[in-house]
Amino acid sequence: MSNVVKIFDTTLRDGEQAPGCSMNVEEKLKVAHQLEKLGVNIIEAGFPIASEGDFNSVKLISKEIKKCEVAGLCRANIQDIDRAWEAIKYAKNPRIHTFIATSDIHLKHKLKKTRDEVLEIISQAVKHSARYTSNVEFSCEDATRTEIDFLCRAISIAIQSGATTINIPDTVGYTVPSEFGSIIRNLRENVDAINNVTISVHCHNDLGLAVANSLVAIKEGARQVECTINGLGERAGNASLEEIVMALKVRNDRNPFKTRIKTKQIYPTSRLVSNVTGVLVQPNKAIVGANAFAHEAGIHQDGVLKESITYEIMKPSEVGIPSNRIVLGKHSGRHAFKDKLTEFGYKLSDENFEIAFIKFKELCDKKKYVFDEDIEALINEEFVRSGDFYKLGSLECLSGTEKKPRATVKIIIDGSEKKVEEFGDGPIDSVFKAISKAVDVFPMLDSYSVASITGGMDAQAEVSVTIKDQGFLARGKGSSTDVIVASARAFVNALNNLRWRKNHPKITAPKGV
Ligand code: KIV
Ligand code: ZN
After folding, report:
1. Which residue lies with its CA nearest to atom 8 of ligand 1?
2. Of 347, 382, 417, which residue sits at a domain end?
3. Would you say residue 295 has pLDDT above 80?
4. How many A from CA of 294 to the centre of ligand 2?
5. Domain range holding 345?
6. 171 lines ligand 1 (CB under 6 A)
7. How far lies 387's CA from each of 305, 367, 452, 497, in Å?
8. Domain count across the chain
9. What is the pLDDT of residues 15-64, one digit of tens each?
């Protein structure tokens, strides 16, 4: 049996199902290009029947991505499968990913179908998919709560009908490593022809076991893992790509398996996904969190300075984390700035490069030391998010112990400018109220958090906000050396995402037939 494990990235599908996590078509395409650079084998680009936006992004990604297979998710019915095929058929190697639940809990309460009816649906759906392509993946939703003999029958029928990848999802993150390992072993021992297909696993993290469960499944013969960048996904998320890949790499003595991931692209991918979704990475997140390589205790610092292996099991550079060195400053010229952008992998048009360079010089006037992270934030602020309907023109805010906070904002709405003044309980409240009044949208502020991008009194602030309106949840991020400006940018970014969400409603969660 081969020791190569395929990485199936579902950041753009299951990842996007995380609450408030929305990406527009251009943003999804940027993430897809970065996933290609990272070296994933399969990109699950979306759920084409879910919305017009999903359909268009899957189609565009299929046309543009050359080095990865592109998968489209569909329920086990003709209409879904046809729609998925319409979107993915342009890909160099398209994959239909069809699914139906197999657990008695789902059959009884959700599908209201008998086991025999579900087996018939599997057979029809997989046969229909196989008429389009031989690259068909079938998933038994809620596999880990499915009675094992029925799971074997469902998988047998899927293989007989033409499935070439069989995915075993732990949909509700319920299983534990010992149990999941024996499920995979059982399938390999009891399902005819299972060795002719690829076994895949798809673990959710409700008990914090998604990565451990995925690793044990690989040991038992799974050769595809489904995962997401930063562990994004429904509820507690999916197995995190960076954790699985680095567990296989760092502990290759115990996990003698290979992936084709270029690990130096892990951190840039994590940052891009965080920036386009507005979902901050928790500081203590393994591999990509801000503290993943920070040594606080004196004894640890001393050890690392003497020999990094004392307290570091991998080098930050292996996963592409830039060293926190001073990179550029007031006196750096165009050449140095361009070299730095190339090092990060950013390709800007000449016009955008000039804009970025002016912004960089402005930043140098405000900050004595400009770090890699500052440049990354600058590029994200200007160029990563795209297609903005609302833009922050200018902002003025007055507040103090003796003053009622007051903000004046100029907002550009689809090209025309609107100026509004508002009072608030605090400076940020007055800014958010003024922006809301200008765009005539009054969402509830669900969460607000601020972090500093680097150390130092002149560090840039990175603000993240979540807003709710008419049942829609949206996130936004903004950065600046001024925390009020960063907050305004985050709020405007969230309003753009909210607008996108409202204009591209999805059908209810992709569960069921
Ligand atoms: O969690 C799950 O079961 C899924 C399937 C659609 C693969 O996301
Ligand atoms: Zn899932």
Report:
1. 14
2. 382
3. no
4. 32
5. 294-382
6. yes
7. 46, 29, 27, 10
8. 3
9. 998 877 878 898 999 999 999 999 999 999 999 999 998 999 999 999 99
